[in-house]
Amino acid sequence: MERYKSLWAWMIGVMVIMQAGIFMDYWGDFTRNPWAVHIHYWNATAWYAFLISQPWLVTKGKIESHRTWGLVGLLLAGAMVLLSVGQLNRDIVYANFARDNPGGMGPFEPWFFFHVMMVEMVLISAFAWAIIMAILKRKSPGDHGWWMASTAFILLMPALGRGIQNVWIGVYGFAPENVSALYVGHFLTQPILIAMTAAFAWRFGKLKHPATWLAVAANGAYYLLDPVAKSRAVQEFWRTLIAH
User: Nearest to residue 9, comparing CAs of 176, 215, 203?
Assistant: First the structure.
């Protein structure tokens, strides 16, 4: 456990990256965001704060407080899953708008939003599995702690991806012909996340831990789902299943 004494400080850095990535999407559009987006944002913020506070409590020897707040963490984790699933329909709404209004979403075509939706499904499933494993491994502090820490990297993609896209669009503009805005966020985010996950795992001696593999696989799935999202049959399947 000596190795984990600085984990809470490193988690602060991850939370800063998350907040910086989502800043313009959330705060720049604050008054127009629906209530569900506000709840999702603050629940995610609370989760990252939780990932900072829990190892800090252990470092300070406050084990009982750690366990008590762990029960609160279960509520946050459950809310994270439910809120994420509840917003899947939003991606289909965007896809339908892009289909019915060519150029209305700039360079983003309908398939892009189906891709986002399926990636979110993979990420939230990986998140749920990491939480289950953290519960099962609660008597092994090293395993329990790393399963929990891995959720920070599993959940980071949407915020970081939007942040990178917003910077690129801010520099080069938002227009149908500017497809580079789509692909820079589409393919640049994942290498950064995988590198971050590997760097943290190396720092804490967890490169071979299954939680590290899960976080890397969940982010790597982004590329595998790209051709699937472009299938018209797949798109109609999700429209039928989720939008009705």
Answer: 203
Question: Minimum mean pLDDT among 1-15, 126-140, 150-164, 186-200: which range?
Answer: 1-15
Which residue has 């953290």 as its token pair? 134
- Please say whether the beta carbons of 127 and 151 come within 8 A: yes
Q: How many domains does the chain have?
A: 1
Q: Looking at this protein, which amino acid is placed at residue 68?
A: T
Q: Dig out the tokens for 30 from the structure.
A: 């604050």
The 10s digit of each residue's pLDDT in 122-139 is 999 999 999 999 999 999
Residue 226 phi/psi, 5-degree rounding, is -60, -55
Residue 60 domain boundaries: 2-242
| Buried/exposed 13-45: b ≥16 CB within 10 Å, e otherwise | ebbebbbebbebbbeeeeeeeeeebeebbebbe
